[in-house]
Amino acid sequence: MLPTVIVPIRGALAALDACLAALDRSLDAGAVVLLADDASGDPRAAGLLSGWCAGTRLAARHLRGERPRGLPAACNAAFAEAGESDVVLLAPDVLPAGEWLSAFAAAARDAGDVASLSAWSNDGEICGFPQFCEPSPPPADPAELQRAAVAGRTRVPAQLPAAAGPAVLLRREALRRFGDFDAVTFRHLEQALADWCRRADAMGWRHLLCESVFVARRSAESAPVTPDQAEDLARLLARWPDQHERMARFILEDPLRSARRALQESLDELARTGPQGDLFGRSSP
Predict the structure, then answer these.
(1) Which structural domains are found in the chain, ordered by start?
(2) What is the SS3 assignment for 250?
(3) Which of 53, 95, 141, 242 lies at a CB distance of 3.0 to 4.6 Å from 22, suitable for a disulfide?
(4) Neighbour-count burial for 221-259, b at 16+ CB within 10 Å, e otherwise
(5) Alpha-carbon span 205 to 212, nearest angstrom
(6) 135-190: pLDDT as tens digits
(7) Dihedral angle at the C-alpha atoms of 38, 39, 43, 48, nearest 10 degrees?
(8) If you compute the radius of gyration of the chain from its CA atoms, what whole number of angstroms results?
(9) What is the pTM assigned to this prediction?
C-alpha cells in the first residue's frame, strides 16, 4: 500500500499550484492525496483546491475545516481520513518528481521501530542537500536527482533527532501507538511535529533520514516569528527543555556528512553519462 500524501494548506497560491501540478506529474492514477485546509481565509485557495480535485486523475480530496483551528488539527483530521496507511506530510511549496512516493513506501516497509522518515531537499534543514542546514536553489531536474537518491543510498540509514524538512513520512503504527498531533497545545505544525517526535523517542522509536527520496523546494523568504509561533515554541521547550540542545549537538556533529557524500557521488556518476553541468544549475568548467 502506498502512503497517503497529506498537503497542509497555507498561503502562497502560486507555489501551491505548482506543487499540485508536480503531484499530477509524479504520481500514478488513483494515488491518494488529502488537502488539509485549516479553513483558509483566501477564497481563491478554495477555488483552486476544489477545481484541482475535480480535474485530477489522483484520488484527491479537499478537507476543509469549518473554522481555523491550526494546521496540527487539520492534519489530525487527514490522519483519520487516511485509514490504515502510512502518511507523508508534504509542504505545499515543494516540487516532487520521479518515483519519490514509491521510494518512501519501500523505505517504510519492514521499518520496525522507525516512527518517521525524512526526505532530502535543497531546502531541508538538517536534511538539506547539497548544503547542510542552508537552503540552496531548487535543482534544474528534480527527477534526475530523485534517481540519484535511490542509487546513492547507503546500507545503514542515518538517525535524526526529529523529523525534518518539507517531506516527512509518519508510519501508521507509530500514529496508533503515540496518537496524533497535540492540537490543543500547538497551533503550528513545526512545533506539533517536534513534540510528536519526542513522544516517539520517549518510547524508544527512531527517526531516520530517507536517503532514497529527494524533493525539490522553492526557496522561500524567511518570515518573522509571530507571537503565537513564539508561544508554541515556549510550550515545546517547557515540555522538552533539552530540545535546542539536542538539535545543536546534531548540527555540530553532522552525522549526515557521509550520506551527503554518497548522494554527491551518485550525482557525479549520473553526470558522467549525461549532459555537462550539474543539477543545481552550475556550469561545468
Answers:
(1) 4-273 (3.90.550.10)
(2) helix
(3) 95
(4) eeeeeeeebeebbebbeebbeebeeebeebeeeeebeeb
(5) 21
(6) 999 999 999 999 999 998 877 789 999 999 999 999 999 999 999 999 999 999 99
(7) 50
(8) 18
(9) 0.93
